[in-house]
Amino acid sequence: MQVDPNLRNPYILNYSLGLTHTFGNNLSVEVGYVGNRGYRLLSFVDINQAQLGSSYCLNSLTAAQLADACGTGPVNARVPLACIATATCAGSLVATQESRPFYTKFPYVEFINQIANRSHSNYNSLQVNVTKRMSHGLSFNAGYTFAHGLDTGSLNRFGQTPQDNNNLAAEYASSDFDVRHRFTFTATYDIPGVKGYGQLLEGWEINAIVNAQSAQPWASWDAGDNISGTLENNDRWNINGPSSNIVSAKTSVPGCAGFNGTLSGNTPANVTCSIANPYGTSQTLTGAALTSAINGCQSDAASGATLASFGCFVSANGATFLTPPALGTFGNMGRNIFRDSGFRNLDLSVFKNFKFKERYGAQFRVEVFNVLNHPTAANPFGASSAVEGGNEFQGGGPLGYSGATPDFAAGNPLIGSGENRAMQLGLKLTF
Questions:
Q1: Measuring CA to CA, which residue among 41, 56, 45 is closest to residue 7?
Q2: Which of 93, 232, 365, 427 is the most exposed place for a label (fewest CB within 10 A)?
Q3: What pTM value is reported for the model?
Q4: What separation in angstroms does the CA of 424 have from each of 120, 190, 368, 373?
Q5: Closest by Cα among 194, 174, 154, 94 to 339
Q6: DSSP of 214-256
Q7: How far, rounded to the nearest angstrom, does the alpha carbon of residue 396 sit from its chain's CA centroid?
Q8: How many whole angstroms separate alpha carbon 222 and alpha carbon 163?
Q9: 319 with 45: CB under 8 angstroms?
C-alpha cells in the first residue's frame, strides 16, 4: 500500500431547492431538488500495473523483454500454446513482471496499490413528499424519489481496483448505491368504534408501511482468468445486447461451456448451457434455446481460444450475450451495468387501545413484517451485500445467482430487510 504524498482532504458540495404548499389544514405537499458533487474522493489504484497482454508476450513489449521472457515469438516454450486454452494459465510471469513501470527500480515488487484523490461523484434527485395529518381517523405520509448517482468508485479503498488502473475514467458509472426510483408510504387509520361491550368495539387502529424501490447495480468481473494479461484479476468481458436483460435472481444467468476452440461448428452435441438454482443443482437449456445460445456466443465471441477456455453467458430471453475478450485485451463492458431484481415490501400491524380512567392505558399489538411473504433475492455484489460467486465470470459458473435474502447477505438477519414473513406480539402499559 502506498499513499500519494499529495493526498488532500476530499470535499462534498451539497445544494438543494424546495417548495412546500398546503391544501387546507391537514394536507401538505413538498417538492424538492437535492444534489451533490464529490471532489478529490479517495481512489485505490495499482500504479505498477503490468502492460496489457504482457502475460502472453503480446502487444508492445520491448525487444529485450521478448528475448528474455518470450524467446522468439508471442507464444513460446515458456507460454505454450496449450496454456492459453486452460482457465488456470497465468502466462509468462517473467514477462509480466518486466513490463511493470517500476520494474527497473523495484524488480521484486508486483502490485503498488496507491491511495490518492482521483475519484469524483455526483448525485441528482427529484423528491416529492405528501403528508396528511390526522383527520377523520386517517393520517399518512407518501414519498417518492427519482434520482441518479454516479461515481468512479463507491467503496474507496474497500472496493475493487479498476479494470485498467491507467484509465480510471472508464470506471465512471452508476454508483453502487444508485436507486433510480424509490417509493415509501406509511398510513394509520383509527377504525370508528362503538362505546360499550368492555371497549371491544372501540380503540382499534390499523397501520401499514410500504417500501418499493427499483433495482440497484451490481459489480461483476473475472476474478481469476487473467485474460487481459495484466494479472490484476479485474477483467470485464464483452457484452452484445441490452445489459438490462442480465438480472440477478434466485437462479443464475445461463452459462455455456464445451466449445471446440473455433468460432464455428459448435453444436448441442458438445456444448452445454446450465442454470444454477438455490438448491445447488442445475437445469440445462435444450432444443431451440440451446441452439440459439450456441450460435449467439459463436457470432459474438472475439476469440475461439478464449471461448473454449472460459465459455459464455446468455440472458434468459436469449437477447444478450456475454463472451470473453481475446487474450491481451479488455472487454467492452462498463462498471455496474447490471441490476438486481429490486425491492418490494409490505408491513401491517393492528393495535387495540384500552383506556382505564384518565391515567392508565394499555395497547396490544399484532405486527406482521413482509406480510405477503414475498421472496427477495439479495444483490450479488452491491452496496451492502456480497453473495459468493454470484458476481464472477469464472468457470462458466453462477453469474447473477443470489442464494440469500438482503438481510442475511448484509449480515443483519435479525433486523435487516428482505427476510421471510415474521410476526410479533406486544403489550404496552401507560400510566
A1: 41
A2: 427
A3: 0.84
A4: 44, 20, 6, 15
A5: 174
A6: -PPEE--BBSS--TTSSS-S-B--EEES-GGG-B-BSSPPPEE
A7: 19
A8: 10
A9: no
CB 327 within 8 A of CB 84: yes
Q: Write out the three cell numbers for 205.
A: 387502529
Q: Which amino acid is residue 420, in one-letter code?
A: N
Question: For the CA atoms of 409, 415, 418, 420, what is the dihedral angle to 10 degrees?
Answer: 110
Q: Helix and strand tally (H, E) in the chain?
A: 5, 19
Per-residue pLDDT of the chain (431 residues), as tens digits, is 666 666 678 889 999 999 999 999 999 999 999 999 999 988 889 999 999 988 887 876 677 766 777 755 444 334 444 555 444 555 677 888 888 999 989 989 999 998 888 899 999 999 999 999 999 999 999 999 999 999 998 875 566 789 999 999 999 999 989 999 999 999 999 999 888 777 888 889 999 999 999 999 988 888 878 889 898 988 999 999 999 999 888 888 898 999 988 898 899 999 999 887 755 667 888 999 999 999 999 999 999 988 988 899 999 899 999 999 998 899 999 999 999 889 999 999 999 988 888 788 899 999 999 999 888 888 887 766 665 556 666 544 578 888 778 877 777 776 677 788 889 999 998 88
Give residue 224's Cα distance to chain centre: 19
Nearest alpha-carbon partner for 270 in 260, 279, 285, 280:
260
Q: Which residues pair with 31 in a beta bridge?
A: 19, 128
117 contacts: CB under 8 Å, gap ≥ 6:
4, 6, 7, 8, 10, 40, 41, 42, 43
Alpha-helix runs per DSSP H in 350-431: 406-409
* Cα separation, 378 vs 384, whole angstroms: 9
Q: Which three cell numbers stand for residue 329?
A: 485485451
Angle at 280 between CA 344 and CA 422, to 5 degrees: 35
Q: Distance (Å, rounded) from C-alpha 398 to C-alpha 90?
A: 23
Name the phi and psi angles at 221, rounded to 5.
-160, 170
What the block records as the C-alpha cell of 63 is: 525487444
Amino acid at 205: E
